Amino acid sequence: MTTILDVIDNFFYRDDDIRAMPASRILELGDEVRKFTSSNNPTERLHEDVQYLGGWPSADSLRIGSGVVRSSLLFTEQILVKDQIADWFSNEARLNDQYLSSAPGWYLPGEGPKIAETRAFLARVVPALREARPLIEGGIMVLAPMEIQYHQQHDDIERLRDELADSLLTDPVALARRFSPEDLAKHDGERGMFVFAGGAWEKQTRKTFLDALTYFSREYVSANAYGSTYCAPFEYEQFVCREGLGTKTTKSDLVRECLIRSDLPVFSGLTSQKLSRIHNDDSFGEFRRQLYEIYSGAPVEATKEEFEAYLHEQEQVLLRPILDDARKEADRGLLSKMGLSLRENSFQILAGIGIGAATGSMIPPVISGLAAAADHFTNGERHRRNRTSWTALVNHSASLEEEMPAAERCVGTFNAPARADHDHPWGIPRKPTNSVLVTRGTIHANWFPPFPLATIEDGVDGYRQGPYRPCPCGSIRRYKFCCQEVDRAFGISR
């Protein structure tokens, strides 16, 4: 089945040097990507037990680090991630709400094609896409466009955002004592980096959390639209799942938290090639099958004591022996021979599971007003079985920097902690100010900075101005043979 990887392979078969490609050729790639996206249906490649990496890992899923998130793929049947190339060239992106710091994509109204940014983006993403080839071709990782979902699901996204806000933001300043601005992602390119002025504490704090809830809702609703389960690796998104979604299911759905207390190992040296080789190893494949059965058969409507007793018994009998075998393999078996070793860190899996009691259908618990979207997984008679509403990777010590090494920390212009209970926990001045302050944060910008201008040795030809100057898009071509034709077509003068 064709994937975006096939589009890239076919397009670059004869000109792999992105810096040597003229601008017109880059726009041709965009046409090919949009043509593929319009006819591609990612759900045809999805299994029933597919999970979406939420809360930022999917923003750069092709370059996640060798930490908890990557190791968790061994315990996950299949993952759904954003197709970054499809989203970059998507025309729907311009119809969605964007920040000034958001990725510009291939085109900005009023500015024209963003050739320099697109060239830098492709130079970073295409090699990462090829490195992930074993996972993509093995069906372990499925890439799907998200900008089109954000546009189509706009009303449901706003509805969920508002319902979560009603539940979680009764006292936004108090919630700010639990989470720092760095914990809050507002789009694929930024966590933190919020701008504040003095005064209006509750209004500014609420707006900040609303931005983060909008980002969460976009991912959660879009993941459900593809029939996948949202997975939260980090604390804030886990909080929204547990305390927000848990209160917003319909009355016909009963959602229970299911914590697998076994410590799942984190491996070092786990490349895409090695991960694909051992993903269907007897130990990991059997673990995933048994975990699915535990979730599916859990007595959701039982008492808390009966529910906990069921989980404990099933975990001891079905999962612990498998994990013990996997650790032995890492110490002296096949995994050790492949160069993998156990790290000191570990993690556990938490899930919200429930059943649509009114219909008996295998659907995620439905958010009020949000249409269920997994019907393509079931045919004929539907059985009364549980399905996960969300999952989370918990009780680990992994940092954002370890999980997403390509992201960059930013200091901001103020990091003042609250000095007393009556101070704002984020250090926002109590009284209005004439200046603004920026919080610390992390940025992920695989399109920035663009390539520098190609160097032309003095005395070779002397052309540093006019049509024969180095092209400002960062290619190794002259402007006349790179961007001039595109600029004329879009009415750009430079």
Question: What would a concise description of this structure say?
Answer:
The chain is α/β, with parallel strands linked by helices.
Describe what you observe in this structure:
The protein has 494 residues and is an alpha/beta fold. It contains 17 helices and 15 strands. The chain has helices at 4-11, 23-39, 68-72, 84-88, 115-131, 133-137, 147-152, 154-168, 172-176, 201-225, 235-244, 272-278, 282-297, 304-332, 334-337, 400-403, 484-489; strands at 50-53, 78-82, 107-108, 112-113, 141-144, 185-187, 190-192, 195-196, 229-232, 253-268, 341-356, 387-394, 408-410, 437-438, 441-443. The strands form 4 sheets. It has a 7-stranded mixed β-sheet. A 4-stranded antiparallel β-sheet has the order 6-7-15-13. Strands 3-4 form a two-stranded antiparallel ribbon. Helix 3 (68-72) links the parallel strand 1 and strand 2 (78-82). The chain is globular, with a radius of gyration of 24 Å.
Write out key terms for the chains shown:
single chain; 494 residues; alpha/beta; seven-stranded mixed sheet; four-stranded antiparallel sheet; 17 helices; 15 strands; 16% strand
Write the topology of this structure:
Elements: H1 4-11, H2 23-39, E1 50-53, H3 68-72, E2 78-82, H4 84-88, E3 107-108, E4 112-113, H5 115-131, H6 133-137, E5 141-144, H7 147-152, H8 154-168, H9 172-176, E6 185-187, E7 190-192, E8 195-196, H10 201-225, E9 229-232, H11 235-244, E10 253-268, H12 272-278, H13 282-297, H14 304-332, H15 334-337, E11 341-356, E12 387-394, H16 400-403, E13 408-410, E14 437-438, E15 441-443, H17 484-489
Parallel strand pairs: 1-2, 1-9, 2-5, 9-12
Antiparallel strand pairs: 3-4, 6-7, 7-15, 8-14, 10-11, 11-12, 13-15
Helix pairs in contact: 1-2, 8-10, 13-14
